[in-house]
Design goal:
By secondary structure, the protein is of the alpha+beta class. Helix content is about 20%, strand content about 30%. It has one domain.
Length: about 80
């Protein structure tokens, strides 16, 4: 089941980059650069205490940030 608090940054077929909520049919934001879309995804995820995922051009996850799920006694 999709977690609607999570956002994905990925390249679109038209060459632009999108920030898209997991399970959504449309992008939340479309930008010219990966960096801009990644910032949008992190902002959306931060506002909803979710996760932001960054997919590279090869489709593999390059980076991932979690907001609001960190346990108090974690070692790092």
């Amino acid at each position: 089941m999709p977690d609607k608090r999570d956002y994905w940054t990925q390249r679109r077929p038209d060459g632009k980059w999108e920030s898209k909520r997991e399970g959504a049919s449309r992008a939340s934001a479309v930008t010219e650069t990966q960096a801009e879309a990644w910032e949008k995804s992190k902002d959306f995820a931060r506002d909803r205490s979710g996760e932001a995922y960054l997919k590279g051009r090869d489709g593999l996850i390059r980076e991932r940030n979690t907001y609001g799920h960190d346990p108090e006694n974690s070692k790092g």
